[in-house]
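Rotation project, supervised by the postdoc (A.L.). Task for the rotation student: set up a whole-complex structure prediction and record inputs and outputs verbatim in this book. Inputs entered:
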Amino acid sequence: MTKTEIKEQKPASTGKPDSETVSDRVDRPEKVDCEPITLSNPITPSNPMTLAPEDKVFPEPQLPSAQRYTEHFDASPKGPKGATIEGGIDAIVIGASLDGMAAAALLAKAGLRTIVIESGFPMIAAEPEEFTAQFYCDPGDSLSFGIDPALLQRIDLHRHGLRFAERRMETTYYATGGKRLIAPGDLAEFANLEGDLTDRDRRRADLFIEEIQSLSQSLVPYFETGNTEAQATDTFNRWALSSLEETLSGVFDEEVLTSIFATEALRFSARRPDSPMTSLSLIRRYSGEIAGLQSSIGAIDRGLQGLSRSIKRTLQTLGVDYRHASEVSRVLVEWDRVQGVEFTNGGQLRAPIVVSCFDPDTAFLKHAGRDHLDIEFVRALESRAPQYTTLVARIAFDAKPDGPLFNEDYRRRVIRLASLATIKKCFTAARLGDFHDDAPAELFFPSAFHSGLAPTDGAVAIMRSGPAPLNPKPGRVFKDWEADAKKHALSILTSLDETAAQSVRSVEVTTETSSDVILREAEIARFLANAGGLKGYFYCGSGMRIGSPGTGAAGRRAADTALQYHKQLQSVL
Amino acid sequence: MIFGLETDHFKEPRPSALYRPFADESTANDWTVINGIAAARVYTDIISEYTALHHGTALVDLGIQNRYAIHGHDAAKFLCRLSSTPANDILVSESARGLILNSEGYVVDFCSVTRLSKESFLLTTSIQIDRRLRIAARGYDIGFDNITDTVAALGIFGPNALKTAAAAGFVVTGDTLASHGKVRGVEAFARPVELGHTSGIEIIFPAEEALTLWERVRRNNEIIAAGTASCEIVRIEAGQARPGIDFCPADAPALSGKRIPSEINAPHLAPLNRTWFNGRRAILDTEPTRELIPLVADADEVIPGTPVYERPIGSPKNTANIHPIGTITSAAFSPRYKAAICFADIPFDHKRRTGLLIGSNGTGHFTAIGGGGETSANRLNEDGIPGVLNAYVKTRRMDTPETDAALVFKKSAKKATERQSFFV
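Outputs recorded:
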C-alpha cells in the first residue's frame, strides 16, 4: 500500500452533538477539526472518531462497549475536506437487504468485526406503510417461497422472533369457465387437490412436481460455486432446451393443470423480449423451502418486515455496527483485492472483506468500476435491460361481502389462471405497452393474518399480475399508465368476485421488476459467484438468487465464502 | 510479428495495398489467404527467402495483419484493460508487445501497441478483433478505426534492413523508437519490429501511395520478397506460437485447444505486475495443464498432427505399447538446424527427463520422413521405408528466444509479482 495523505478527525471543543440523530450508545466528541496523517498511523478502536450530525445508527439495543468502532466521516457536501479513513474493521456489508443482513450476522458470529452500511439501499421499512387512510400494507413480498434452512439453523432466527402466520398455505386456482381447484399447502400432497380431475392427471401432476423439485435441488451447486459442471445432467439439458409450452404439451389431459403450471412459472417471470418462457422458469417458483417443506408457500408474521426484524435482532445481539452513512461511491480496489469502500463525501472505511447486496449493475459497474472487471463480465451485465414487469396493486376493501373471495377462509392464496396461449398474448400486449384483460394474477390478503392492517370490517389485499409493461410511453400507446393499471387490477378483481370489487375503497399500484431468464442468470452467476475475480469482494444481491428473494441463501453463501477468504488471509499474514 | 490463420472462405480474397508490386515478384505462384487477404506462401524459392531474412534484406507484405487506430482520452486506460501491453507506461513512439486474453485467462491473440501521441495508439493484431473492441469500448471515452485496408504496411527484415530503409529515406532514430515524416511527399510512419529473432522495420503509409513508396524501397535489386512459408520457419525457430495453428484463439467457438499464456511460452507477455488487464485474475489462479514445446526432430519433414510419445526408458527400440501424449501443431524444415523443427503440444506433467519421440504407431500414415543422423532409432521400418509403419523419430528440445524469456520469467518475476499483489 502506498503512503497516502488522509485526514483524521480529532476531538475539539466547538459545536454541539445532535441529540436527535446521535445514538447514546456511542461515545462521541462534539465536533472535530482535521489534520493530515498517513496510513502508518492508523485509526484504532482506542482512538474513536465522531459521527457526523446527519449520520444515524440503529437505535436499539445498545452494543457492547468492546464493539465501538464508531469512527467515521464528516458528511459535508463540500467534498473530501474533513473526510476520514476508518480502519480496524474485518468486514463491511453494503446494503441492508435480507441477504446482506444474513451475511453480516454470519460474519459477526464467526468473530469478524462487521459493519453494515445501509445508505443508498432501498431498505425495508420499519413499519407498515399506510397506503390509504387507515389501511396499511407490509413492505415487500408478504408471501415467502422459502427461507434458507441452513441460515435458520445457524443464526436461529426463530429465537430472535421469526414467526409464521401460515406455514403451508393453500392455493385456490380460478380457471376460465368458473372451474375452481384448491391445492394443499404441502406439494407432496398435490395429487389430492380439490377439484374435478382424473386419477391419471393427479398421478402425472405428482410426478411432474417431483421432477421440478429434484431439478431445482441439482442447480444449487451451480449457484453456490459457479461450477458449470453441476448443471450438465440429462434432465437439465432437456428442460433447458425446451420451452415451457413444449414441456407441458401432452403431459396432462386437463387443460387446467397445464394452465396451473404455466401461471406458476410466471410468478417471477422473464423480463426481456428475447426471454422466452423456458421450462426452467418453474424452478424459480418451486425452489426454496418453508418449514422443512420444499416448494411450500408461507406467510411470515408481519411479512418480509417480520423476517427483516428478526435478522436485525440477531445483528444487535452479535454486536454488528449498523449505520446510515453517506452513500457508497465506490469499492476500493487495489490490484485485485478490495480494501474497503469510499463514500460520496470522500471518507473511507477500510476492510479486507466487502460484501455487497446491491443489484449487479450497481455492485460491479458502479461500485467496483468497469476498469477492474473482465470484458466478458461487463458485457453480460450490460445486456440485462428489463422490458417487462409485474404489476403490484394494493387494494383496500371497505367491507368483506359474501362472495367467492371472502365467503370462504381467505387465509389463502388465490390465482387467476391463464392458458399458455393467453400468456403469449400478455407478453405481446406488454411489449406494446398495454395490459391484457385476461392476464394471470395472484391475490393475497395480509389483513387475514395481521388484523392491524385494516379496520375491523375492512380488508387489505395485494395483487400481482404480469407480464405488465415496464415503461409507460406517454402519447404513444396510452397516456395514463397508473389509471390503466388501476383499471386493470379492478377488472381482474371483478372477474374473480364482483361483489368484492364493488366494496373496493382504493387501489394503489406499483411495479416489481421481474427476474431474468434462469439460464441468463446462470451465465451471470458464473462471474458473480467469485465476484468477477475481485479478491475480498463477495456478492449476494439479486443476481445470485435461484428463486424468490428473501430466502437469505445468497447471503449465507457469500458469508461462507468470505469466511474461507478470511481464514486464508489470516494464514498468510 | 505473428500472422493470423490461413482461411479458405467463400469470399474472394482481398488484395492488400501492396498486392500488385508483390505479385510481380512471384514466380512460384503459391498463394494463400490470411484474414481474408491474399498472401504469397513463396515468391521465388523458400531457401533464398529464408537466407535473405537471416543474412540480407527481405521485404514482407505486412498488410495481412490487422491494424486499429485507437484514439481518445481513455485510450491508454482502455488498451491496458484490453491487452497486457503496458500502454500507460510507454512513451510516444515506443512500442510494446502483449497478449489479449479473455476473462478465463485464455489467449485470444498476440498484439503490439505503438503510442503515436498522448491519446492515440496503433494496435496491431494477427486476427480480427473488431467485435471484442466494440464490446470492450463501452463506457470509455475512445474511438477506434480498423485501418487494415486503408494503409499499406511494408516490412524490411534482415541485418541490412536499417541501411536499406535509410537509403530509401526512412530514418529510424533508435532501436526502439518509431518515427514519422514525409518521403517523396508521402506521409509515412516507420517503427522497429521483429520477425522471430530477425529484426526489421515496418513502414506504414496510405494505401493509395503504395506504389510510390514501393518504388523507392525496391530500387535496391538485392532485396527479395519473402513469403509466409519462410516467415513460418523463422517463427518456429523463435519459439512463437501462432493462433489458430498452435492453439485455438479464445474467441473461437471451440471447446478445446484454448491455452493460457504459460502454456504457449508467453507468460512474460502477461506479467502480473503490469496494470490490471482482462483475464489477469484468471491466470493468477490457473495452473498450466498443457505445454507447447519447440523441438528439433531427427527428420527432414514432420507433418502437423503427428503423434508425440514419451520415450520409453531403456532401449530406444522398446517402443511396444507406448501411447501418444500429444501432437505436433506446426512444423517446417529449418536450414539453420538442417532438420525439421516443430511445436509439440503435450501435457504439462509429462516425464521431462525421458525425451520425446514422434512418429506413427502402426497407423500407416506418413508422419515423419527421412533425414536424420545414423543414431536415429527405428528411423527405418522393416522394409527400409522411412517414416512409415511403426517408425519413430527422436527429438530434442530447441532453445528459442521466446522459451528462454518464458523460463527466466517463470523462475523470478511471477513469484515476485504474486507475492507483491497479495500484500499490496
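Student's summary: The longest strand of chain B covers residues 107-117.
Supervisor addendum: Residues 228-238 of chain B form the longest helix (11 residues).
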